[in-house]
Amino acid sequence: MIFDFARYRKTPITAAKALTEMGVQLVAITDGPLSPLATLTPNWCALKIPAVGPFDSAVPPVIAAELLVARIAFELGDAARERIDRLESLWQRIETFLEYMPRHERFGHSGDRATENW
After folding, report:
1. Domains (ranges, CATH) in the chain?
2. DSSP for 34-97?
3. Which residues are within 8 A (CB) of 83 and not within 5 positions of it... i.e. 6 or more apart?
4. For the chain, which residues score pLDDT lower than 50?
5. Most exposed residue of 4, 15, 64, 110, measured as fewest CB within 10 angstroms of its CB?
6. Which of 34, 32, 51, 40 is CA-nearest to residue 16?
7. pLDDT at position 118
8. What pLDDT sits at residue 111?
């Protein structure tokens, strides 16, 4: 699954091209049939992205991603959980994420502004 919208970015398009050349079936979420992503896969969905003040809203693509992932995970069942577990193992092995440390341990105080001495 790959996302990109008007003012198309090079990285998603380049990645999508490379993946399709490798035979990966993509699902593209984009803004219409003229999108570079729509030309790379027959599996695409157009979303209208409303402007919210001076910028475009990220809400529609986030909702679409969550709904698609939830449905795919439901359809795949145990196979999806196994894939997710393999990815989690990979992320841990290559230290993708920072190790969580509660705020009070990071900053040496409770993190409760009401009790902090200013």
Report:
1. 2-107 (3.40.50.10490)
2. TSTTTTT-S-EEE----EETTEE-SHHHHHHHHHHHHHHHHHHTHHHHHHHHHHHHHHHHTT-S
3. 76
4. 116-118
5. 110
6. 40
7. 43
8. 52
